[in-house]
Amino acid sequence: MCRSCGSIVGSGQQQCAVCGATTAGSVTAAGPRVGADNETMRFARAVLNRPYKFTIILLVANIFVFLVMWQTSRMPFSLLGPLPNEVLLRFGAKLNYYIQTEHQWWRFVTPMFIHVNLLHLIVNMYSLWIVGPYVEKLYGSAKFVVFWVLTGVAGVVASYLTVRPGLPVGSVARFIFKTSDDPSAGASGALFGLVGVLFVFGIKFRHELPDGFKRAFGTGLLPMIFLNLFIGYVLRGFIDNAAHLGGLISGALLALVVDYRRPGERSGIAVTWRVLQIVAIALVVVSFLKTAQHFNDPMPAQLVSQPAQISEPQNPEYLEYAIAINDAQEAFVVARKDNNPGNIDGAARKLEEAPHLDQKSDELRDRLKALLIRAKQSAAAATASPSTAKGTPARQDELLAEFVAWRKEYDQWLKTEGRNHSGLNELIERK
In this structure, are residues 149 and 134 in contact, taking their beta carbons and an 8 Å threshold? Predict the structure, then answer.
């Protein structure tokens, strides 16, 4: 953490990206200490000391909604296990069918507070904790709330407009367009909106910003934006890229026309922004009240995925196999994200002990075990010798791409041969 302005400083960085102050513990003989210029220090202190209470409120609200959804689903604790579609839809996930046929307009608002699984929530809330305070401190709480709601709605609208069933699309068009009307939810559209605000902020006010802020915002955000869009392209079909782009573009447009609170200006805000803030909050509250009002409405069977209709598989061997696969996936994600391979050995043993179901299930199990071993080796190498890990990003991307391809095959197996082992077909026949 920077001693001058309190910003988070990455490991190995010699200088704070915000205020420009050196982060070295002592002055070496190689040269004189390089300090931040007074203007950067004054600007950083004036901006970063401002409160960011609505960022915290949004964090708490998103976590609270997810906990209520999780309790409603009665699912066991899982990092990757998705909530049933029925739960997502009852809490207000976006589905074009409901908006078009039932005129449930509030589904343009509620999805930005809904998350599909625990990992989805953690990633988005971590991003909000990193990006949100900067926007709220620069623009003030009233504008921040308006930005969040407007860009979140814009993301959902973009997702709504890009659902085109029957549209023949190639690999590039599939980055944006969706050929099936699936539930969509998440705060990432609003998060991309905040990134769009900071991107345009850094460019629009580049002539009056100190050097440290010029590096942190504006074109300094391009690597992060391109990286997230690349991840969205690799994981197209799983990630709603249209919502991300809708949020990013709407946030950029808002920043083009909205000014920010400069250091030394009075803390008071225009009455117009306070009114807009109240309207935005009221829109969210009314939308969730409408969701609660229609919570128990009958749900067409074709809108609920089959796995969501079954609380657990009827076959205990299938259940044991599914738990082993799920634990292995969690171990893989932890090893990739935190360079922590501690759970991999236990997950690999569970995979070895998982019962035989069919030839395809054995193949999927063996491939996942091989991915775990490679993830362990990669994490161990990065932990033991960070200086030699410079060439690993390409291999890491390749490993992630193989995992995504494996996951697609596993999901397909669940929908086909896996149904024969889960007892789902028997239950449907009895019904």
Answer: no
Distance separating alpha carbons of residues 20 and 35, to the nearest angstrom? 7
Rounded CA separation 139/255 (Å): 10
**C-alpha dihedral, 270 to 275 to 276 to 280, nearest 10°:** 140
Q: Minimal CA–CA distance to 243: which of 58, 94, 117, 128?
A: 94
Sign of the dihedral through C-alpha 115, 231, 238, 243: positive
Angle (nearest 5°) at CA 332 between 331 and 338? 85
DSSP assigned state of 187: S
Which residues partner with 236 through β-bridges?
A: 239
Q: How far apart are CA 349 and CA 388, in angstroms?
A: 30
Instruction: Count other C-beta atoms under 10 Å from residue 325's C-beta.
Output: 20
Helix (DSSP H) and strand (DSSP E) numbers for the chain: 18, 0
Contact (Cβ atoms closer than 8 angstroms) between residue 243 and residue 159: yes
Q: What tens digit of pLDDT does each residue of 75-127 get?
A: 887 788 888 888 999 999 999 989 988 899 999 999 999 999 999 999 999 99
Between CA 311 and CA 198 the distance in angstroms is: 44
| CB-facing half-sphere around the CA of 14: CA atoms within 13 A | 6
Please, are residues 124 and 115 in contact by the beta-carbon 8 Å criterion?
yes
Which tokens hold the place of 163? Answer: 């659902």
